[in-house]
Amino acid sequence: QIQLEESGGGSVQAGGSLRLTCAASGYTYCSAEIGWDRQAPGKEPEFVSVINSDGTTSYADSVKDRFTISRDIAKTTVYLQMNSMEPEATAMYYCKSSRCPRVRGQGTQVTVSS
Predict the structure, then answer these.
(1) SS3 46
(2) Confidence at residue 70, expressed as pLDDT on a 0 to 100 scale
(3) 7, 40, 53, 90: most buried by Cβ count inside 10 Å?
(4) pLDDT beneath 70, residues of the chain
(5) What share of the chain is helix, strand, coil (3-state, %, to 5)?
């Protein structure tokens, strides 16, 4: 079973930037398409972005033009570059396989202060 591990979370002021990393233990069918979700306290999980096996990407309207998802050449690491961050982005961020729902990381906390 492939494993995913997030890193890069932290605290930042509004308008700042963070880059999250999702490292997969290998490149498999499950890791070919990786997405990011986030969950704020007391709220339902929310889709943030996904990168597909062909390199195409999708974003939630709330982060479009500010967040960028990408992956390395080996396709074992996915990045989420978050710019112009707003306090509403405060949440636990999870990377997960779009193809294998049970494959997801433990999450990394992002806090944006005003």
Answers:
(1) strand
(2) 97
(3) 90
(4) none
(5) 5, 50, 45
